[in-house]
Amino acid sequence: MSLRIPYDTIKETVKKAFLNVGLSEEQAEVCATIHTQSSADGVESHGLNRIPRFVEYVQKGWINLEGKPELAGARGAVENYDGHLGIGITNALFCADRAMELAKEHGIGCVTLKNTTHWMRGGTYAWRMAEAGFMGISWINTESCMPLWGSDEPGVGNNPFCIAIPREDGPIVLDMAMSQYAYGKLGVYRLAGKELPFPGGFDKDGNLTSDPGAIEESKRILPTGYWKGSGMAIALDLAAALLANGNCGTDMDEANQGSCTGCCQVFIAFDPYLFGSKDEIQSMLNRRVAAADASHPEREGSHVTCPGERTVSTRARSMAEGVNVDELVWEQVQAIAAGNLETKDIASK
Questions:
Q1: Fold adopted by 2-60+308-337
Q2: 193 close to 148: Cβ distance less than 8 angstroms
Q3: Are strands 263-270 and 135-140 parallel, antiparallel or unpaired?
C-alpha cells in the first residue's frame, strides 16, 4: 500500500534516522535532502527504499563516515580522487561540483573517483550539472549483478549511466541502468504487488518473465537491448576502472561487501556554449525537444516525452500532494528514526 507524506515530514524523519546511525549534522542534512528528493521525483527505489540498506552497510563498516575525497592525481582538466569508502552521496556531490569548477576554467572538466560507495540515485548528479548550466555525463561501475548475454549467471554490473542536457525550458536527463529494470525498481513493483510493464528478466527455469520477485530470486535481470546492454555494461565497467585507476567489477565481486562498495565513478561537465551562442543552442534544444514530444502516440490520449520531462511533473505533484511512499518502507524509516537500527531491508532480496 502506498501513502502520500508531506516532503518536509519525510526529510526530517530521514534526517533523524541518519543522525541515529552516526552521521554528522551536515551529512544527515545533505543525505536526507537527496534521498527525499529522489522519492519526490518518483525514484523511490533509490530514495527512501535504500535507507535500511545504507544503515546496514554503516553498521558493518562498509561505509566510512569519516571518509572524504582525497586528490590522488591531476592533469589539466582531469582530476582523480580516492573516496576512502566515504558516504556515496557526499563523495559524488563533491566530484560533480569539482567537475563543474574545472569546466568553468577549461570548458570541460572530468573528475574520476575510486574506492567510494553507492551514490544512490545516479540522476542526482546529472540533474545538478544541468541545472547549473552544464552538460553532464556520469556513470558508475558495480559488482556483478547481471548476466552477460549468453550466460545464466551474474557476470557484470548493470552500471548506471546518466547524461543531462542543460535546456533552460527544462533539462533533458537520461538516468538508466544497463538492465531493463534496476534491482531497486524490481523491489518497488514487488512491494506494490505488481507485475513489470514489460519482461525484465528470467526466472530460475530460464523463462522470460514480468514477475519481479522471480527475477530477484534468479538474479537474471535482462540487459537493456539484450547483447547491446550487456556489451555496454562491460565497457562502462572497464572505462570507469581505467579512468579512476580503481576497482573493476571483478574486484568488487571478490571483496563481497555489498552493492557498489569500493566502486569507481566518473563525472564529466561540459560548457554548452563553447562553440555556439546561448540563443542558438537553446533554440536548437527547444526545437528538437518539441519535435520529439510531438511524435504521434501509439495509444489515444497518451503523449510522448523526452527523458526528465515527466520527472518535473512528478516533483510538482509530490510537493503539492505529498511524496508517494510504500507504507512498509515508511514504517521502516520511522523505526530507524526512533532508534531501531535492526530494521530489515525489505526493498531488496
A1: Hypothetical Oxidoreductase Yiak; Chain: A, domain 1 (1.10.1530)
A2: no
A3: antiparallel
Of the two residues 301 and 88, the one the predictor is more confident about is 88
- Which residues, in sequence order, are CB contacts of 301 under 8 Å at separation 6+? none
DSSP assignments along 50-101, one per residue:
GHHHHHHHHHHTSS-TT---EEEEEETTEEEEE-TT--HHHHHHHHHHHHHH
Kind plus residue range of the DSSP H or E element containing 33:
helix 25-40
Reply yes or no on domain 70-179+223-270 having CATH 3.90.600.10: no
296 as an active site residue: the answer is: no
pLDDT at 349: 64
Give bridge partners of residue 110 from the DSSP assignment: 78, 268
pTM: 0.96
Grid cell at residue 187: 523491489
Q: Beta strands of the chain (E only): which ranges?
A: 2-5, 70-75, 78-82, 108-116, 135-140, 146-147, 154-156, 161-165, 172-176, 201-202, 208-209, 263-270, 323-326
Digit-coded pLDDT (tens) for 146-187? 999 999 999 999 999 999 999 999 999 999 999 999 999 999
pLDDT of residue 347: 85
The confidence band for 219, taking pLDDT boundaries of 50, 70 and 90, is very high
Given the residues 46, 84, 106, 303, select the one marked as catalytic: 46
Nearest to residue 265, comparing CAs of 229, 239, 234, 228?
A: 239
Query: Cα–Cα–Cα angle for 166, 170, 171, nearest 5°?
Result: 35
